[in-house]
Amino acid sequence: MQTTKLSDESILPLTCSRSGSCCFGKAVMLNPWELLCFSKEKKITAREFRDLYTDFGGIRLTFNGKPDKKGQNACSQYVDGFGCSVHLGRPLACRLYPLGRQIQFNKAAYIYEGKTFPCLIDCAEVLDLPKMSVGEYLDGQKAGSFENAQDEYLIVMQNIADIAFELLLDAGLAASGDTKTLATWRIMGNEPPEKLAERIGTTWIDYLMLPKIIDKAENPQTFAQKHNDFLLLKAQEAFGNIQTTDELHEACVLIMGLALHLSRGLGADTKGIAEHWIETAKNHGALE
Question: What is any Pfam family matched here (predicted)?
């Protein structure tokens, strides 16, 4: 699909017509901070919101509302005739839409996909509204803190994967001649999210999406850093004393599965990331 890159100064028809068409038929992915923000706005616990309104353990918002003319279901948070019921708690994907955000070489770029600017497909009335720059739009959407959360969780994702690398490369698993671990990483990178969530299991899914953090920070970067420490502690508790190659394999698969599941919640290319990590491991002596 054609992709158009934008700068902060790019002028586009970004003034919203409030038609609600963007609240139908989408795949809105969530990170743990966004799940918490949604629950606060809904005035329920993060676990309640996760169990009621998300899929695959919390990484995707459920779209099971009244369908539109195209048969696309509305977001579970969309109220007909009103709009988003939790607008102030909406995640980055909703704040950016119709834009996307790419991270390359530690730099963010904004894009839109397709030959036609997405808003013009279903909301042609935006042409009668004032245009604005990408920067002005993002400021108005208060996207900054949610971008910070996304960037911080990309670091958490890599840190989780690093635990799997330690189990594979430093604890003797690769040296034992193991070949099934990398093969399983590849399977996980390709399998559907419901299957991967089932593979990981409820305990670690809860660790990933519902971290037990005392004094939850309002700052998303601090929250993500505390979450990172929490996951590291749980990994140490669970895997600090394992010795057999079978135990190492199971732990390595579980932790890498967790990193890949988070990658999908971050809207990343899960298959591509899995392949990258496999090649990295092979370059350090692991076998497949």
Answer: CxxCxxCC
